[in-house]
Known about the structure:
Helix content is 53%, strand content 14%. It is α+β, with helices and mostly antiparallel strands and 174 residues long. The chain has a 4-stranded mixed β-sheet. Helix 3 (82-95) packs across helix 4.
Amino acid sequence: ALTAIYLIVAAFLFYSVKQNREQFEFLQSEISRNQVKVVRKLPAQKEIEKAKKAVSQPVIFKKEDRTIAFPNRDLKSLPESAFVKLDRAAVYLLKNPQMRLVIEGYTDSLGNVADNKTISEIWSNLIKAYLAGKGVDPAKMQAVGLGPVNPLQNNDTERGRRANRRVELKIIKQ
């Protein structure tokens, strides 16, 4: 009986080793095949030089790029106009790691103050999440919802209310 048990265990181990070796060889061939594909997709030398030149140039984060307008109060996603500005901000912050970012959200004065603060918080957190997704350290960003304070224009007109619905990006040197 003991010999039978030894034979069963030995057969099981032999079979397991054989299966693992076959899987290993299959994975090795897949890796080799994928390496060939990756090598073929390497960028041309011109593209590499162009990328190096772009990285070496200083990034300027202009004042007009620091305000993101939210045209509608009920907007729960980033407006299309924000992406170019936020991409510039991300590049600037990544190239200048000594900088911090304060993201201040503002709304118009319609509705109650608590709702306005919540809306402005949502907007500033959307921007923080987008920038974090681009590689900016979340610990170097602070998102604040301030609601209807600091209006840029009078809230009596639609144009004024639209101007007041915004998020401002404030760069601070640490």
